[in-house]
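Students often ask what a 'structure token' actually looks like in practice. Rather than answer in the abstract, let us consider Glycosyl transferase family 2, a protein of 211 residues. Its sequence is given first.
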Amino acid sequence: MTVYDQDYDLRENLPAFLEQKYEPGYEVIVVDESSTDETPDVLKLLKNDYKHLYTTFLPKPTYYVKRKMQSLNIGLKAAKNDWVIFANANHKPDGDYILQAIDDTLDFTAEVVLGYLTKKGIKLQSFDTCQEVKDYIIRKERKIQKVRTRKRKNYRFGRYDFIIIRKRLAIEILGYYEQSPSFWQRQAMRWHIFWKNLMSSYERITYLPKE
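Now compare that with the structural description of the same chain:
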């Protein structure tokens, strides 16, 4: 995950990411985009308690989308595992079973999986190729429409909360962060996503219900 001036979010939410009960083991990588608040201090304190927390930073961030891409690229280079999750420090896992439940349910034939936080639990949407998920990534990262956390049927508009992807394919996803579509291209993306998700509500969708 990447963070900027999010000391409060890290205090409140990061321990939930770090306390997952997952037998194979995992690591949490946080890239600090040169925060000006107490984010570095919070991360330093948490590292004392959690040995699987790795932190690094991006110096002097400037343009939003490029900064996001650069930060995630730094995190990818530090990652040791074959599968990675692009997560958000704002969105706290609802339990310590989430990572194991994802592993038990994940469609390993897919190249990319989008995760949605819903009232029923976590919803996973699988895609065969990175190209299929291109519109979702570009629209979200360009913040075409404000994302409302846990809003009902967010998936119909592609308002995902996290991305699951193989590390070797993640660079292709990051390439979408740099693209600058026109107004009409953005509108086309919006309706393409809506109609695709509306017509395939039960296609490659998996729920992970809350305990």
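One point worth highlighting: The chain has one domain: 2-209. Ask yourself how you might have guessed this from the sequence alone, and why that guess would often be unreliable.
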